[in-house]
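WARN no homologs supplied; continuing
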Amino acid sequence: MAEDPVPTDSPVTSGNVSRRGFLKGAGLGAAGAAILETGLNAVTEASTALAGPAAVGPGRVAVTLNVNGSARKLDIEPRTTLAEALRDDLGLTGTKVVCDRGSCSACTVLLDKTLVVSCMTLAIDVGDRAVTTIEGLAKGDVLHPVQEAFIEHDAMQCGYCTPGMVMSCAALLDRNPSPSLDDVRDAVSGNLCRCGTYPKVFDATLAAARVSRR
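OK structure emitted
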């Protein structure tokens, strides 16, 4: 008995792919490949965007800081704060770390002419900016007028806040040689003194301003 003939439009004839089946399959394969390629490209672009710039660390990195007029080369971890670099690596312990969270301003230093709290500033972010610490205000054995006035007016008690206070007041006189009492109060409004010696700080700064104007 003869077998029924396989329809001519069948995708398979005696194990062979028909012309119509082949064309259909080829079309679907090309479309699927295109969709897959598009999806892979999108995933790759998204991954690249999320990756961002290459991370620094976690090992030590070499940096050069311009501190008090001198270039100082350091080998530090990326997480090192400017306060830690100054105190632990350079031995400039005049900068005090009290709260270590940027709320007391005892660690205040100058970056160029801008006051910053060094406990909240990463050393690797300083770049080419000039760092001035409490040690850098004096010119050799000649103290800054604010430093002299703080001694003369006994504008310190425990001394932890003193370096930050001096930096804030020196920066005030640099931008305003004739400050009022309110100007001085504003200048040290972010400096916390637990001993409460603010009145003497005010007197010392106003006295330093008078000396500087002579």
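The two ends are 128 Å apart (CA to CA).
OK
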